TrEMBL record:
Domain named ABC3 transporter permease C-terminal: residues: 110-225
Membrane topology: Multi-pass membrane protein
Highest rank taxon of the organism: Bacteria
Cellular compartments annotated: Cell membrane
Amino acid composition bias (Basic and acidic residues), ranges on this chain: 14-23
Record flagged with keyword Cell membrane: yes
Keyword Transmembrane: yes
The name this protein goes by in its record: Putative ABC transport system permease protein
Alphabetical list of Pfam families matching this protein: FtsX
One annotated Gene Ontology cellular component of this protein: plasma membrane
Organism, scientific name: Jiangella alkaliphila
Ranges where the record places region Disordered: 1-42
């Protein structure tokens, strides 16, 4: 309607006995059917995307079960040593010192390994949901909504898993104390005093680490532009500078312990001073190399592809390892820790037993501490390798089926996964062997055997072969569960 016609329309007079009625919009607003025009629209709450949590869990059972199993095992491993510290606070004398050493030293190193493995597993589980995060943002979900959804979802999973893990942790604590009493390391008068407080502290610490790892993993995908976040999942991504700095700091710290062992503690009157410094070196270097696993895998796979890529399976495996090292590195990191900690500690124990044979034998408490460290870390790292491969292959099932659809035989696709396991196993075992040398060489020098130990050299190749077998076996078992077509 033109302005002229509007201006020429006569204005209807207001009848004094019938005042103007409110508009239809105003009447509906007054009745509560529609919000008034002046009301500001509130931002959508988490509930608008919260319904996606259940479908996400249902369609990714292997990845989330692997994360939940890691949280459960973390609680079961760390909990017993925390209860030993609580029991030590109610003891005195040599019993208190032995319990504090067992709970503090062994539990402290176990806690470092567990927390790193936990953060790595939760991080890769969340990063595997980049497609889902990008889709949510594409249809209008805000980044804060996505981050809150992932944090709350992870919190529920971690709470349930830690609650279940607290049960074996309590029984494990009692069994560990009984073993210490039966071995004569503590007196029979020591009673189990650990329980609620220590386990509660363990549960809270693991939940906080899990929540922090999920928040860090989802932050980049939820804050970056949608196109950039999608590209991170498909192509190679650069390792953050802070992560390289952390890796370098850990490696240099471990090398510093090696130097201190050869220059200072090797001349100490207490022979176990050298063990304390040398034993820390391989663990620190192993964790440092594991932090830089994506960069190391990318370089190693690229070099192998240029020289040794023969056949479709090896070409697929090496190409994927070089392009998507940031995803496949989750299977390399626990292999490095497994190889470095087991080789370094077992060879250290062997050198200690041989060098102390003429001085009345090795201290039983120290020997037990070393054995417990090796068993605990090795078992946990082995489980981490199996879980990492299960989660990685479960996430790539669609990709593996697409390779079959474009012409690759199912046997070729499965063999490519096994080759990836061989690559990570060989690289992880080699890096772990280098990390173990940072412990073995200085300690052998400190005990008067020279740079090369006088015995026990068979341990290194045997453990390297065992580590490679674990990596290849885990990859083969995960690949065997992938189905193609009517299989």
């Amino acid at each position: 309607m033109s302005a002229a016609r509007t201006a020429s329309r006569p204005v209807r007079p207001v009848r004094p006995d019938r005042p103007d009625r409110p508009s239809k919009r105003a009447r509906r607003a007054a009745a509560g059917l529609t919000p008034p025009a002046s009301t500001k629209r509130r931002p959508a709450r988490l509930g608008s995307v919260g319904w996606l949590a259940r479908p996400s869990l249902r369609h990714r059972p292997a990845a989330f079960l692997a994360a939940a199993l890691t949280v459960l095992l973390s609680t079961a491993v760390v909990g017993p040593f925390a209860t030993l510290i609580e029991t030590a606070l109610h003891s005195s004398g040599e019993d208190r010192l032995a319990l504090l050493i067992m709970g503090g030293v062994v539990g402290g190193w176990g806690l470092i390994i567990v927390l790193y493995s936990l953060a790595s597993t939760i991080g890769i589980t969340v990063r595997q949901r980049t497609d889902e995060i990008v889709l949510l943002r594409t249809i209008g979900a805000a980044g804060t909504q996505v981050r809150a959804l992932v944090r709350r979802e992870t919190l529920v999973m971690a709470t349930v898993a830690t609650a279940l893990g607290a049960v074996p942790a309590w029984f494990g604590a009692r069994a560990l104390l009984d073993a210490l009493r039966s071995g004569g390391l503590v007196s029979d008068d020591v009673r189990f005093r650990g329980g609620g407080l220590a386990l509660l502290a363990t549960v809270v610490a693991i939940i906080l680490v899990t929540r922090l790892a999920a928040a860090l993993a989802v932050s980049r995908a939820s804050r970056a532009p949608v196109r950039e976040a999608r590209a991170q999942q498909v192509g190679p991504s650069r390792l953050p500078r802070w992560r390289l700095l952390v890796a370098a700091a850990l490696v240099l710290y471990g090398l510093g312990f090696a130097v201190v062992t050869m220059a200072v503690t090797a001349h100490s009157d207490d022979p176990y001073d050298a063990m304390m410094t040398a034993g820390n070196a391989s663990l620190l270097v192993s964790i440092g190399l594991a932090v830089a696993a994506p960069r190391l895998l990318q370089r190693f796979a690229g070099a192998l592809r240029a020289r040794f890529a023969r056949g479709a399976a090896s070409e697929l495996a090496l190409s994927n390892a070089a392009r998507r090292a940031h995803l496949l590195s989750s299977t390399l990191a626990p292999v490095i820790v497994l190889a470095g900690s087991s080789i370094g500690t077992l060879m250290l124990v062997d050198v200690d037993a041989r060098s102390m044979a003429g001085a009345g034998g090795a201290d039983e408490v120290t020997k037990l501490l070393n054995i417990v460290v090796v068993v605990m870390i090795s078992l946990f790292a082995t489980i981490m390798v199996i879980n990492a491969w299960a989660a990685a292959v479960a996430h790539r099932r669609g990709e593996l089926r697409r390779l079959w659809l474009v012409g690759a035989a199912p046997r070729t696709v499965r063999q490519s996964v096994v080759v990836e396991g061989l690559v990570t196993g060989v690289l992880g075992a080699g890096l772990g062997l280098a990390a173990a040398a940072v412990t073995v060489v200085p300690f052998s020098w400190a005990r008067g055997e020279g740079l090369v130990p006088d015995g026990g050299l068979w341990l290194a190749p045997a453990l390297v072969a065992a580590v490679i077998a674990v990596a290849v076996g885990s990859a083969a078992a995960a690949a065997s569960r992938v189905t193609f077509g009517g299989q």
